[in-house]
Amino acid sequence: MIQLIGLLLVIVITKLVWDYVKEREGKPKVKPSKPNQGKVIDVGDRWSNKNNMPYRMQNHLITGKDLGLYQLFSELLKDSKYAAFPRVRLAEVITVPMTANNAEEYYNRIRDKTLDLVIFELPDLTPQVVISIEVSEDKRRGAGDSFSKKAIESCGLGYFSIDINSPQDIEKLKAELIELGLEL
């Protein structure tokens, strides 16, 4: 009986040693690094000294015709309870309920899209109308904007597109906004 217990102990110890050796052999060996192979960015120093950070302020949020259109809508809405904001993320205006089928996929479709101009009701900034700036020569738009338009309209928001290269009639724009439900 003692011989059987001794044999079992030898087998268990052998198995433990065998597993330990196999585990050590399976691990990749760490190669010694070569000096000066690459610089490591010390994030701690970068954050503590703002003069070493690579960021620069943009000169303008929008320029050219986009800026002119924003100023036109700002003037049009000046004495109303609405305000226009440029470059608003679609996911900030509409949302996908987590209970919806394929909610994550639907959210991913809107997450990175940016709206050209959104009219919000003051003072609580409730979105009312989305304005899409169209450029007659721009062939890249279409399917993506079609999806955005359908998503926006499915939420009950007003939507219209405007050709930035065409002269804008203020009274016509005002009539379109009234038709979309704004009280101007």
Automatic annotation (TrEMBL):
Cross-referenced InterPro entries: DUF2726
Organism phylogeny: Bacteria, Bacillati, Bacillota, Clostridia, Eubacteriales
Pfam families xref list: DUF2726 (PF10881)
Domain of life: Bacteria
Protein name: DUF2726 domain-containing protein
Domain DUF2726: 61-177
